[in-house]
Amino acid sequence: MKIKLDQQGNLKFPAQFLQRRNLSAPLEFWLFEREGEPILLPRLPNLRKLYIEVTTGCNLQCRFCMRNIWDDPIALMTQDIFDAVAARLPYLPELEEVVFTSFGEPLTHPNILKMIETFTSRGLRVTLGSNGILLNPKIVSELMRLGVYRIMVSIDGAQAETFHDLRGANLQQIIANLEYLKELKKPTCHPPARVGGGVRHSQIQRQRAPCTGTIGIQFRRCAADRQQRAGLHRGHGGSNPIWLRPC
Question: Which positions ≥6 away from 97 have C-beta within 8 Å?
Answer without folding.
Answer: 48, 49, 50, 124, 125, 126, 127, 149
